[in-house]
Amino acid sequence: MSRIFLDTNILVYMFDADAAEKQTQAQHLFDEAASNDRIVISTQVLQEFYVIATRKLGVPLTSQQAEQVIRDLSEFPLVAVDAQLILAAIKITNQHHFSFWDSLIIQAAMHGGAEILYSEDLQDGQIINQLQIQNPFVTA
Question: If you average pLDDT over every residue of the chain, what do you get?
């Protein structure tokens, strides 16, 4: 089975009671991918998750709750953001005109061997190298 990379927004929706439909979809996607050992994430995603989950949700997670989620997520294959990854992301930014932060997510996904990047922030169906972007919230 192919690996998938989960962008921060997918993980945040799992805890967003104000977006019940997306919460259900995100949880289902996560559960299915986790049960098949397909998930890969990055240190950037963990950092962003902590900030958003503790500050921007309608009912934010406590620091302790968010820390536990990050501990759990850290059990999956994790791509560490380093200078080499940052430089590769800059190249993607220049080639495709994405924001730097989106380019860093894309580069981390490729570096982690993912074939699919689930994100709400990028164009659904777009392919970058061998990486396909999918928005799990788009209805057919």
Answer: 95
